[in-house]
Amino acid sequence: MTDVPKLLVVMGVSGSGKTTLARQLADQLDFAFMEADEFHSDEARQKMARAEPLDDEMREPWLNSMCQHLTRHQQSTVLAYSGLRRRHRQRFRELGYDTGFIWLHGQFDDIRRRLDNRQGHYMPASLLTSQFRDLEMPKGETDILMLDIHCNPKQLLTRATAAVSLLYRSA
């Protein structure tokens, strides 16, 4: 009998550090790494670059593309993904993976400073307000562990590794 592949979703608003942490965890766990931003359509990227937030209609093809990729590949994966909507998180739970989430949580002003200093990303810092507005807090979702981003990257990785152990018990 083969093990069910694991899906670890590192979620949070833009600028929370999810890509950096997800890459580190993928390396540490020997999982595939998946960046949700790579699955956006050109149209969605252009819209965000114009500082226009995506609505659920624009998010749907993005979600479909990520879910199709995961369904095709069926390998343990760490996904860097905003995870703003509860129903969108639920779609990942239904893919047949052993799924867990790490939510990188921080204060608006701290994340805004990070975004103001970020170079070369299509999403402007001005969209952070819409991301905080759209974030549905993970109440009652027992497979989501929150990590406060207000620590140095090494501490965050240590805390995330401990969270993974809690989520999967054997990772």
TrEMBL record:
A Pfam family it matches = AAA_33
Keywords (A to Z) from UniProt: ATP-binding, Kinase, Nucleotide-binding, Transferase
Q: Which domain of life is it from?
A: Bacteria
One GO biological process from the UniProt record? carbohydrate metabolic process
Kindly tell me the pathway this chain contributes to: Carbohydrate acid metabolism
Claim: rRNA-binding is one of the keywords in the record: no
Top EC class of this enzyme: transferase
Q: Which reaction does it catalyse?
A: D-gluconate + ATP = 6-phospho-D-gluconate + ADP + H(+)
Write out the similarity annotation: Belongs to the gluconokinase GntK/GntV family.
> Which PANTHER family does the UniProt record give?
GLUCONOKINASE-RELATED
Q: What is this protein called?
A: Gluconokinase
Q: Which organism is it from?
A: Lacimicrobium alkaliphilum
